[in-house]
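[Automated response] Your request has been received and processed.

Submitted sequence:
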Amino acid sequence: MDQEGSLLLVTLEGIDGSGKSTLHTALKILLADLDPIFTREPGATWVGDSVRRAIAEQIDPVTEATLFVADHAAHLATVVRPALKEGVLVISDRYSDSRYAYQSVTLQGIVPEPEKWLRAMHNGWTIIPDRTFLCVLPVDDALTRLKPDAQREHFEKREILEKVQNNYLAYAKAEPGRFVIVDAMLSPEIVAKFVADAIQQDLKTGKKRGDKKRSPE
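Generated structure:
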């Protein structure tokens, strides 16, 4: 498949409960003909195990954030860069935007200007996605899709998710050519078909970052 000149790195973002992981799974079927690599952060590398442990044990926000960055670096080195070098489409469930959106909230009051600090750690070596589909829905609706409050991870609280979603929306406003806002209140089937069709169309026309895409209605 010749994808030269077209998008190769697609990311799925959104707060917990937005349905992005369900979307990720659905795309494996809808885009099977493209033979893409489906991956995720954290969890695509052994470093992801350390991230999960840090989250579960709530060791320290700085430790957690730096482990996320380490996982991202390993992910790029072992999965993303090799695939892109071969011209293979990569679709990742969460990527660097998750870190900026979430850890800039959990690091508030601990690190001065946390988002600036996080972005500085990525400058010069990360790869910016060609297209990012951002699943958006009311936080209260997202919470109904999660485990009971007592079983949730520390960043799955209403006050944190509200700030995280606001961060995401700010990123989408700043980069309208890369981000596509998806109404996550629509049925999973409609969302998956829209995203799959959008990716297919981008590949067909050779569109890349900077070319706007309408969200589903």
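Summary generated for your ticket: The two ends are 31 Å apart (CA to CA). Helices lie at 20-30, 47-57, 61-85, 96-106, 114-122, 139-144, 158-174, 188-205.
If you did not submit this request, please reply to this message.
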